[in-house]
Design a protein that fits this description.
By secondary structure, the chain is an alpha/beta fold. It has a single domain (6-241), classed as Rossmann fold. Helix content is 40%, strand content 14%.
Length: 243
């Protein structure tokens, strides 16, 4: 009998997070699905289809009390966590430039979700991750966080929060790699998402397509054939981006 493999996905209510959750279930994982919304019919449908292999977890990664409550549930049920995917993110204002009036409270909330939210989860679950066989943290970043490739004049909150997430990933990698831990930092591509409050259909990739690429990269990262190279921001096709 194969051992149960637990994974956790934040921002699993819809879009890429939901697609990653279903993809992991199809691969045989048991999945904790971080749910921000009070009601999520799509996750309820997965529960009907996959039973106890998927467990919805009320989770606001920007809120310390919410994270603590969720982690208590996870730790009580699964002492080992093979895979953590820090996917939950928000966009913030994408039009204001430095000559405009900037909403700093909005920026702070973006950082609380995109950067500190991911760190809360990795910090809270690192021992369970290191107690597993796969020992993998996946941070869903963005090309928007690449300083070397940046051409924008706006998107302050999103770009800076993802750049900070990249640095966070490197710091975590430095700590857990000697202990057998692994980190992936992935730009998921231009995905059709709800990050602007409604479905953005301009993206080249559907959530399912992006999730498929990401899960392939995860499988490659877990292979002993993964090249022994410095941590890098890679896109959904494996292309390396400058930090």
């Amino acid at each position: 009998m194969n051992p149960i493999r637990w994974a956790l996905v934040t921002g699993a209510d819809r879009g890429l997070g939901l697609a990653l959750t279903q993809g992991l279930l199809d691969l045989g994982y048991h999945v904790w699905a971080g749910q921000y919304a009070k009601e999520c019919p799509a996750l309820e449908e997965l529960t009907v289809a996959y039973g106890e292999r998927v467990r919805s977890l009320r989770l606001d990664i920007s809120n310390a009390e919410s994270v603590a409550a969720a982690l208590n549930i996870v730790k009580a049920a699964s002492p080992a966590l093979e895979l953590l995917i820090n996917n939950g993110a928000i966009l913030g204002n994408i039009t204001a430039n430095v000559q405009d009036e900037l909403d700093f409270e909005d920026m702070e909330q973006v950082f609380r979700v995109n950067t500190l939210g991911a760190l809360r989860m990795s910090n809270g679950l690192v021992e369970e991750i290191l107690n597993s066989q796969e020992k993998l943290i996946v941070n869903i970043s963005s090309e928007a966080g690449s300083v070397g490739a940046s051409k924008r004049t706006a998107w302050f909150a999103y770009c800076m929060s993802k750049s900070a997430l990249n640095m966070q990933s490197q710091l975590i990698h430095n700590q857990i790699a000697p202990l057998g831990g692994k980190v992936l930092v992935i730009h998921p591509g231009h995905v059709q998402t709800y990050m602007q409050g409604k479905l953005d259909t301009s993206g080249r990739l559907t959530p399912a397509q992006s999730a498929g690429y990401i899960l392939e990269l995860i499988e490659q990262r877990l292979s002993p054939n993964w090249p022994d190279e410095p941590l890098a921001l890679i896109d959904y096709q494996g292309k390396r981006w400058p930090w």
